[in-house]
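Structural biology now treats backbone shape like a language. To illustrate, our science desk offers a sequence and the tokens encoding its fold:
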Amino acid sequence: MALDVTHILDPLNERQREAVTAPVGNLLVVAGAGSGKTRVLVHRIAYLVEALGASPGGILAVTFTNKAAAEMRGRVERLLEGPARAMWVGTFHGIAHRLLRMHWRDTGLPENFQILDADDQLRLVKRVMRTLDVDEQKWPARQAVWFINSHKDEGRRAKDLPAADHDVFGTIHRDIYEAYEALCNQRGLVDFAELLLRSHELLLTNDDLRSHYRRRFRHLLVDEFQDTNTVQYAWLRVLAEAEPDSPLGPGAVWAVGDDDQSIYGWRGAKIQNIHDFQTDFADVEVVRLEQNYRSTSRILQAANALIGNNAERVGKNLWTDAGLGGPILVYSGYNDLDEARFIADRTQRWIEDGGTPDDVAVLYRSNAQSRVIEEACLKLDIPYRIYGGVRFFERLEIKNALAYMRLVSQRHSDVAFERVVNTPPRGIGGKTVDAIRSLARASATSMWQASKDGIANGAFKGRAATAVGAFIKLIDDIAGVAENVPLHEIAEHCIETSGLMAFHSKEGGERGMARKENLDELVTACRQFGRGLVLPVEDSGEEYSQASELDEFLDQAALESGDYQSGGPAVQMMTMHSAKGLEFPLVFMAGMEEGLFPNTRSMREPGRLEEERRLAYVGITRAMRQLYFTYAETRRMNGMQSSNWPSRFLDEVPDACLEEVRMGGAVSRPFRVKTDNGVDDRDDHGGLRIGQTVRHAKFGEGIVLQAEGGGERTRVQVNFAKAGSKWLMLAYANLEVLT
């Protein structure tokens, strides 16, 4: 045992040392943003070995990404000045995989079992659905994958699900899950969710192995504890419990996390785990890391005030000795294009003043917001990169829609034809496409022409001929409608008539919603192109036909998808979720509007609204030196132009932290919506508030999207679940407020 642990403790502040040197036992480290949580975890491992004499082989440390696990191991080895091979350091999935490989016989798996990645799993589910004769257009395979994985994350097998004959959705997906599970067992296949579930079941059902690992791992360290799901939390509890009749007692769980940064509820993370830890485990001590090494005091004051509106927090208050810093700047754009121009302009100023593009991050709630910001950066030659995703015109659903639009204008585009001939699925399989391709080569024609010729001369028969003929008719019908309509209506007609909107919307979860929003944004891009606001073409003085405008748009979109492919310094654009764990000197939080952030869906449930607020907290605490909040007074979303109120999150930030900025002589509404007597202007519409759920005698239940006017002339826009969006005169609508 080393007597001198100066090198372990000297780099730490007082609270960090308290967490690192705590006696062996259960400890919860509530580590605020930028407070050095990874350092504390690494130094705790080194302290266990060098100061407390813990065996490296008795240490199990888990986190959520391979990058974080590799960094953790490397830093531990540098502190210990030697390899840490005996320790188990890795992700939850990585350690579960290790257990299954070591004990494959006990799990009922073959020795050479195969791990399915996400694409493999999707293909296998599609195969199962074809076997069950399930229509993928009605029941998308991605939705079935989500159903399977979400139940596995909750620890439920197919046999554990109720029959639910009254629930068609549940019954069909349960059948798919059951058949998929049987096929995986038969072939020795294991998906990511299965790794965790099966390793948990292994420990639950095998007394000898459970006893062995309880005796071995006396120190369990967990990073990002707020992101654990049900089965991960259960897995930890099984390992940490005391072995009956053993003098060793329970294992010690040292968990570090931040309930204020729990933002992954939509993918199974349970914020309740960090609260239950203090009751499910014995004698839990709590240490708070509140000194922030990233941001200015003003930014932290804003973050503290905002998150203070959430209930049932573990609680902490971030502070820094880095100085007050400048105010958080708030910009109100006339519309989303104006907002984007402002972001690009301020970014350019930052670079001209000596900063680099890498210093800058633009955060948004929805991926669809990136499109106009990308446009604005392109106009000013500002390099940018979509972090953790793809640029707007390169997204799968957008490329699919553009391919349909290309075929409307250019029937002989083989690239467009191959991309969408069976997207959405319409019974044109790979063999038929190969036959069309071969016929086109033999006759030196396009695949479009080869398809028509093949039907005419009998080269295609039966179902193949019917399906190919239906596709040709579909494109011709769309083109017929598109002859005399504006560009945005061509795009809208392509997206709807082709079935793309329905196909992508049915994927389920955040992915399906994002794809729908992106397709709506493509229609907006076409509308703005038609008005000459974005994607401008050179003005030659000639009159353009609708077809040539379509071609210009398609060509410009193709050119944009090829811009800025270098790996040099670039502005980082990303969703709020992608920003977690990152930091930047300059941060823009765009789209700070009611209905967008927080989004409309979150307004229905307090729990979801609190997660949205945690997401805003994460966004704020990414900023090191300068933070901007921006919003648009009008924005086209989901195909509709809307007037927007500033986000309630702006109201929750103290006045002393904020300063409004404007471009030139622009005039905008005050971003504060509360009057001098404290009344919220958003409530001055017959007691209604944006985001409330209401009921109408004829249209049923809906969500209030916006309100205009006052008194007897007040009108409200309500999105009804069955009847769609309606504008109603409030004085005559007799709306019943439900929430």
